[in-house]
Design brief:
It is a single chain. With 455 residues, the chain is an alpha/beta fold. It has 16 helices and 13 strands. The strands form three sheets. A seven-stranded mixed β-sheet has the order 8-7-10-11-12-9-13, with helices on both faces. Strands 1-6-5-4 form a four-stranded antiparallel β-sheet. Helix 3 crosses helix 5, helix 9 packs across helix 10 and helix 15 packs across helix 16. It is elongated, with a radius of gyration of 39 Å. The structure holds adenosine-5'-triphosphate (ATP) and magnesium ion. Magnesium ion binds next to helix 7.
């Protein structure tokens, strides 16, 4: 560089004659510029090459190829892999219906409604906190070796593509969101099951009875709003009490549906002894409701045992089974309040007959009385069964319900019986028939009270 510059400057300051000088000067200038250019090129190459390369690499990087993550459906790769694939599939089923041109309806065991899935080759776009991603379902032939390992001949996987600069948010936040949402959706659609216990030899078992397809929901449960909200907000351990037909079992079904929990219906008289009880309760998985219906009958048995040690053989045999203290131990040990995903509900028609040890706070956190049918409950039933929200006969019914005790089951029965009889009048007919039944009960009550001897 030091040699070039003086030469070039010399040309500008030269003193040769006009024409010849200008031609010679031009030639020299061209030659000089070429030399300068070559040297400049060499200079750039030697000094800035690394820098330029780095710059270009950065530029390409910022233009950024997509990153791809695979979620395979190969159970050979372990249950965790399969779980993630299933969660992705369920998550995408909620996103894809509006996007993918080809969808398949998959009927999945344990899921009540068919799951819509993206078909092979189709893509689904998703957005999370402003970051765009694309999912695609891919299928390819397996290697020969893999086919030999068994299973399907094809590999199926979802690819998740996104810009590399979004890697952190996708990996740390978006994927967690997909997994959580996918699992929650699956839980919501889960086919619920009903189990009951039985004994064989010296062992007790839970038996699958049937799918639990009860339609009860809290919205259709005929009960005051406040009471329902109280139960929903604090689902832990319950004692539901009230006369037959007030909706105790219906409430349990509504709880199971609300939480998507299976129901484990425990028949205490079929449990061999305290140790069996403990084993049975230990086997109840998360996301389950343990139900002990008519607990008053069970505790009566345990109380009689102490009074009646010389009792007949049959009675003695029952008494040997589960004791009250055994039951209390299990409740205290197994179903603690922070043991998420398990709920315990007892029911009784006679709350006064229950041993006070069972009623103590901490054992049954909530005592919920299922009352006779009040006007608010009636309105819900009228809406459920007749689709009527308000009617001029409601006032009369309200007055009658204040005079007598009828259960929601009694009211519902009268509303069902008339359903679908006529077209327009069927609602009126039902209400009039209900009024008739209620008036009859009021009259019966009056007669009964009149017959009672005065004390
Ligand atoms: N509160 C309610 N809300 C809606 N429906 C109810 C209610 N109570 C009763 N029913 C209707 O009456 C039927 C019987 O009610 P359910 O079996 O829940 O009563 P229960 O209190 O469990 O009675 P039991 O003490 O005899 O077991 C239900 O199938 C339902 O149709
Ligand atoms: Mg019941």
């Amino acid at each position: 560089m030091a040699n070039v510059l003086p030469f070039f400057m010399g040309h500008q300051a030269g003193s040769l004659g006009q024409q010849g000088m200008s031609q010679m000067g031009l030639g020299m200038a061209i030659a000089a510029s070429m030399v300068v250019l070559t040297m400049f090129q060499q200079f750039l190459l030697t000094h800035f090459r690394g820098y330029v390369e780095q710059l270009l690499r950065k530029l390409f990087k910022s233009l950024d190829q997509n990153v791809q993550i695979r979620f395979t459906d190969d159970s050979m790769d372990g249950p965790k892999n399969h779980e993630a694939y299933a969660a992705v599939e369920t998550y995408l089923s909620s996103r894809c219906s509006a996007q993918a041109p080809r969808l398949k309806a998959n009927s999945v065991r344990d899921i009540t409604t068919p799951v819509l899935c993206v078909d092979v080759g189709e893509g689904v776009d998703d957005k999370f906190n402003g970051v765009a991603v694309r999912w695609q379902l891919v299928e390819e032939e397996k290697d020969k070796g893999d086919v030999f390992r068994g299973g399907s001949r094809k590999n199926r996987y979802y690819t998740l593509s996104f810009r590399k600069m979004n890697r952190k948010i996708v990996v740390e936040e978006y994927l967690r969101h997909v997994m959580e949402e996918g699992k929650a959706l699956k839980a919501r659609n889960r086919q619920l099951r009903l189990y009951s216990n039985s004994a064989s030899g010296s062992e007790c078992y839970w038996n699958y009875i049937m799918n639990f397809d009860h339609p009860a929901k809290f919205e259709t449960l005929a009960l005051e709003k406040e009471k329902k909200e109280d139960v929903i907000n604090d689902l832990i351990r319950y004692l539901l009490y009230g006369p037959p037909g007030t909706g105790k079992s219906t409430m349990i079904a509504a709880m199971a549906n609300l939480l998507s929990y299976d129901v484990y219906d425990l028949e205490l008289t079929a449990v061999l002894n305290n140790a069996s009880l403990k084993r049975l309760l230990n086997r109840i998985p998360c996301n389950s409701i343990l139900v002990i219906e008519d607990i008053d009958c069970s505790s009566e048995i345990t109380n009689k045992r102490e009074k009646n040690s010389q009792g007949d053989e049959k009675t003695e045999k029952i008494f040997e089974r589960v004791t009250l203290s055994g039951l209390l131990n299990c409740i205290d040990g197994l179903f603690s309040a922070n043991d998420g995903g398990r709920l315990m509900v007892f029911t009784t028609n006679h709350v006064e007959a229950i041993d006070s040890a069972l009623l103590r706070t901490g054992r049954m956190d909530k005592h919920v009385e299922m009352p006779f049918c009040g006007f608010e409950a009636f309105r819900i039933l009228a809406e459920n069964y007749l689709g009527i929200e308000d009617h001029e006969l409601f006032a009369k019914i309200e007055g009658l319900l204040e005079e007598i005790d009828v259960t929601p089951a009694d009211v519902a029965e009268n509303l069902i019986a008339r359903k679908g009889k006529g077209e327009e009048d069927s609602g009126d007919e039902c209400l009039n028939k209900l009024i008739e039944v209620l008036e009859k009960k009021v009259e019966e009550n009056r007669v009964k009270n009149a017959e009672l001897p005065l004390l």
